[in-house]
Structure formats: C-alpha cells, structure tokens
C-alpha cells in the first residue's frame, strides 16, 4: 500500500532530538493454548523517544496489550529484550506507571488513600504525601471525592483516580491499557483532553493501547499499527498535526480512512480466525 | 431508621406479626382446651410468666449488699446468658485466632498448603460434638472443655474461608500493587488481607454460628451454668415452661450475636459493593 499523505510515513522521522527512552529489540512472545502455540508477538523492534506519545493500535488479539505488558514487566518476552533508559526490564516497577482498563483501584481504600498508596510505599513523610495527594486531587478535579470509596464513583471518576495514582509516582513513563475503553464518548473526550493537558505539562513518555482509530489520531505523536497473529508492527505512522486536533478536519479524516483500511485488514483476519475456531469446536 | 426506607411502616409490621400472632393464639387455644397436658405443652402465658421470673433478680433488693444496677442484673437469666456469651466469645477468639494466621499462610503459600491440607481435610468433617469425650478426658469439667469444643467449631469455617479468600484475590489488584512498587509484606498486609476480608468475615459469621450451637451442647454436658445447662436442668424438674423460656432466650442471644456480627460486617466492608443494607 502506498502512502497517501505526506504525514504518513513508513519510516520514523525524528520529531526532535530527544533521546530514545524505551528500546524494544527482537521481541517475541508465544503462548501455549492447549496444544496450540500462539505467536502473540514476533520480531518487534521499536524505539520510543523521551516525551513521545505513542499509540499501539490494532484489533483484538494483535498483541498490543502483550507488548505493553512486556514493557511494564508483567510478562517478560519469550525472546528479545525491552530496555528503559538502558536497563533491561525484568519486573514491574514504579518507574513505569500503569493505568488499566478496569481501573484496578483498591476498593477498600478511599480515593485519597488510593492516590497515597504508591507514595507510602516509597516511604515519603506524611506531610509530603498529604501535600502531593492534595495537588493531584486538585489537578484531576477529585477534591470533592477524596473520602469516597471507588464503588461510589462513575467509571470516568474511577479512571481519574487511577491516573492520579500513577502520576503520584512521578514515573517518567506512563503505560495505558485501553484506559478509556469502557467510558461513554463524552467522558472519554474529556479525559483525553485532560490527559493531553497533563502530558504537555509534565512531559512524560506515554505508551497508550487502543483499538479506537479516532482516539489514536486525536492523541498520538506516532501510531504503531499492529498485525493480527503473529503480532508484528504493520506500520509506524507519524501524526503531524497541531493539537488540539479537530476530528472533522480533512487531514484527520484522510488519516482515519487510511488507518481504518489497515486495521480492517487485520480485523478481517481476526474474524476469520474466530469463525474458524467456532466451527472447529 | 431513615424515612426513605419505610421498613417499619404500620402495614409492614402488621403483615410481619400476622403469622406469629396466629401461632400464639393457636397454641393458647390448644392449652386452654385442656386436650394437652400442661407439662407437655405449657400455655404461652405460663411461658411468658416464667421467662419474666427467670429474668428478674431472685433476691429482694438490699441497699447494704450491692448497688441497684448490680441487683437488677443479678437475675438467673442474665447470668446464664452472660456465661454462654463469654464462652462463645472466648472459644471463637481462640478458634478464629488460630485459623486466621494458618489460613493466610495456607492460602498465600502453596508449600504451607501442601503441608497442612491433608490433616485439615481429615479433621474437618469430624463434627465438634464428636470431640466431647476427648474434651472431658483432656480438660475435665468446667469452662476449658467447653471453650475447646467451641474453638473447634469456629476454627474450620474461618480456616476454609480465609484460604479461599486469599486465593480468590483478583490478580488485577496484585498487578496494580506490584506496579506501584509494593514489596511482599506491603502486598500481604495492604492488598491481600483487605481483599480477602469479605470471605474471611463470611467464614467468621459461619464460625460464630457453629460456636453458638456448640456452646449450648457443651453446657448440657460439661458445665453448671449457661443457657444450655439451664434448660437441661429445667427438664429434671419437668419445668417445661422454663425449658421453652430458656429456648426463647437462646434464640434472642443468637439473634443479638448475629446482629452484632452484621454490624461489624457492614462497618468493615463499607467499601464493598453489593452489600445488603
């Protein structure tokens, strides 16, 4: 497929001179499902620069979450390495804060306690924790909810708490696994804008998994489109549009069409596979 | 009660009281008819009178002897109820106090589990009542065998639920905590233990229910006080009204324990979803 746009390139141009922070080299991940061996990731090479906002885009089963988990250190790759600032990743750590789709708040802790938890683990003093928690609650508009338990919050509010909780860690890298996937469209847009605002303010590297094409164009500096089984990088697309991006702009729509085509090719392979597996049973 | 929930509206109270009132009327009619011997089935009035007498102090009030409150609480029933409650609480504390750490260790560590599980599986089906001969042989009479039996009754429900609770902790909490940098101790104390509390408290509730059954049985055998002892003693004298009055008191104490546990549950699980309230 030929690139249709100047802004869509097969090779990654260097947006600025920022150093590479996350380096993925020859990563392969296989799972055994019964007697079947599934290649979730194959030959993944990826460089992510400090401060970049990267979206991993693809249909279900393309390995985008597996790749994120490899960077997070939850699932080490079968082959290859992931390094962050030159260190090989072997386990999860607070330098790579993770936001989960299912929020993963601790239901027995209040909003403020959830946000404070990572700081307590770090061994910060009570006064420092209180100050930082307050600042984060203000930043994410949670100050009126500090003593609520997660069960009393809407999905959007819960995800705000989860974001505040990882921001508290001051980790240079944020990993986000379809964080807004379960939210309604309006809440989703609000949180996307807040995430961009925070990102621009604190300058973190963000690796964001999504299956929403629009979301990826709205947010990312670069979109990594992934293939369905084996999961490889199909295309590395630079989104060169000023923010805030206008979803009705012709440039936005052209990119959307182009990405849709790529994602749909993979989605079809996923659907065929699913139908096959059902008829085989 | 809040006004939003008319749980005690007059209509609801009337509906709730209908069957009990009918049952009492039928019972009174049966005893008044003279068809049934008063010793076999005393009338409700006789039972209530006996219950009242059982509640009230046996000695007349003497200001020189004790304070007014102590005198008011000196009735036989309150003493019996207190004795039973004391045994339940002590036995439960011993049983649950042993089961909780063992359950946490077994749930959290497969090697500890492999070590202890066979023994637990063999001991668990033995009803606490079956330990009575051994309890008397080991501890003689009095509180020690009763507390031993109650502790056994409370032990297994708390143990099994603690193991299940630790094992059923949602992996997402563990991942989130590891991501936040939690070490093993923090993970256990701040994440696994609170996540397992709904299970543990459900086990505690079953355990205290079992403890309450066992206390009545053990009082019929090993001790000379308590509600279980009192109803057995009443049988010796053919005081059927006192037997029923005692049973009624046992029911009230069980209800009070259950309400207390429920309150504790609601407080400790105030963060929990799907709480009946």
TrEMBL record, chain A:
Record lineage: Bacteria, Pseudomonadati, Pseudomonadota, Alphaproteobacteria, Rhodospirillales
Family: Belongs to the ABC transporter superfamily.
GO molecular function, one term: ATP hydrolysis activity
Pfam families hit by this protein: ABC_tran
Record organism: Azospirillum oryzae
Protein name per Swiss-Prot or TrEMBL: NitT/TauT family transport system ATP-binding protein
Domain ABC transporter: 22-255
InterPro entries: AAA+_ATPase (IPR003593), ABC_transporter-like_ATP-bd (IPR003439), ABC_transporter-like_CS (IPR017871), ABC_transporter_ATP-bind (IPR050166), P-loop_NTPase (IPR027417)
Keywords recorded for this protein, A-Z: ATP-binding, Nucleotide-binding, Transport
GO biological process, one term: quaternary ammonium group transport
TrEMBL record, chain B:
CDD domains, sorted: TM_PBP2 (cd06261)
Presence of the UniProt keyword Transport in the record: yes
ABC transmembrane type-1 domain segment(s): 81-265
Transmembrane segments: 12-30, 85-107, 119-140, 146-166, 212-231, 243-261
GO terms classed as biological process: alkanesulfonate transmembrane transport
A GO cellular component annotation in the UniProt record: plasma membrane
Key words of the record: Cell membrane, Membrane, Transmembrane, Transmembrane helix, Transport
Classification via Pfam families: BPD_transp_1
Keyword presence, rRNA processing: no
Protein origin, superkingdom: Bacteria
Topology in the lipid bilayer: Multi-pass membrane protein
Subcellular compartments: Cell membrane
Function recorded in the entry: Probably part of an ABC transporter complex. Probably responsible for the translocation of the substrate across the membrane.
Homology family: Belongs to the binding-protein-dependent transport system permease family.
Protein name as annotated: NitT/TauT family transport system permease protein
Organism: Azospirillum oryzae
């Amino acid at each position: 497929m030929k690139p249709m746009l100047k802004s869509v390139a097969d090779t990654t141009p260097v947006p600025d001179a920022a150093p590479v922070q996350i380096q993925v080299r020859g990563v392969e991940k296989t799972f055994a499902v019964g007697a079947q061996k599934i290649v979730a990731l194959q030959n993944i090479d990826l460089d992510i620069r400090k401060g970049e906002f990267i979206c991993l885009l693809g249909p279900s089963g393309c390995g985008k979450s597996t790749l994120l988990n490899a960077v997070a250190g939850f699932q080490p790759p079968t082959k290859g390495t992931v390094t962050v600032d030159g260190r090989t990743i072997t386990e999860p750590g607070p330098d790579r804060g993770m936001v989960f789709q299912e929020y993963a708040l601790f239901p027995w802790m209040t909003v403020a306690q959830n946000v404070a938890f990572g700081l307590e683990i770090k061994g910060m003093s009570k006064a420092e924790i209180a100050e930082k928690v307050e600042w984060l609650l203000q930043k994410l508009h949670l100050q009126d909810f500090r003593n609520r338990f997660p069960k009393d919050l809407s999905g959007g509010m819960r995800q705000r708490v989860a974001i505040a909780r990882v921001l508290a860690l001051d980790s240079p890298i944020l990993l986000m696994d379809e964080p807004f996937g379960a939210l309604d469209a309006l809440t989703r847009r609000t949180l996307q804008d807040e995430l961009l605002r925070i990102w621009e303010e604190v300058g973190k590297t963000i690796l964001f998994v999504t299956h929403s094409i629009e979301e990826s164009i709205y947010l990312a500096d670069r979109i990594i489109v992934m293939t369905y089984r084996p999961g490889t990088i199909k295309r590395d697309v630079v989104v060169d549009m000023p923010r805030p991006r206008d979803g009705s702009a012709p440039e936005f729509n052209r990119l959307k069409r182009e990405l849709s085509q790529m994602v749909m090719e993979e989605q079809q392979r996923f659907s065929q596979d699913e139908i096959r597996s059902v008829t085989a049973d | 009660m809040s006004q939003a929930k008319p749980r005690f509206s007059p209509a609801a109270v009337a509906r709730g009281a209908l069957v009990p009132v009918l049952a009492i009327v039928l019972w009174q009619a049966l005893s008044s008819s003279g068809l049934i011997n008063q010793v076999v089935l005393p009338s409700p009035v006789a039972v209530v009178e006996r219950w009242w007498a059982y509640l009230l102090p046996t000695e007349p009030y003497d200001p020189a002897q004790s304070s007014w409150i102590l005198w008011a609480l000196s009735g036989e029933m309150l003493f019996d109820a207190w004795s039973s409650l004391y045994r339940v609480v002590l036995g439960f504390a011993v049983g649950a106090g042993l089961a909780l750490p063992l359950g946490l260790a077994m749930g959290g560590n497969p090697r500890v589990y492999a070590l202890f599980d066979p023994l637990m599986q063999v001991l668990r089906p033995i009803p606490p009542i079956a330990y009575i001969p051994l309890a008397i042989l080991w501890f003689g009479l009095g509180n020690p065998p009763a507390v031993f039996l109650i502790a056994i009754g409370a032990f297994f429900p708390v143990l099994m639920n603690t193991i299940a609770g630790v094992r059923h902790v949602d992996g997402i909490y563990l991942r989130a905590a590891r991501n936040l940098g939690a070490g093993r101790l923090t993970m256990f104390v701040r994440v696994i233990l609170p996540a397992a509390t709904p299970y543990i408290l459900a086990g505690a509730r079953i355990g205290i229910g079992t403890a309450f059954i066992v206390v009545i049985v053990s009082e019929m055998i090993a001790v000379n006080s308590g509600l279980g002892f009192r109803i057995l003693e009443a049988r010796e004298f053919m005081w059927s009204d006192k037997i029923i009055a005692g049973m009624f008191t046992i029911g009230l104490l069980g209800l009070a324990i259950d309400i207390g546990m429920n309150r504790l549950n609601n407080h400790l699980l105030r963060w929990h979803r799907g709480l009946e309230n």
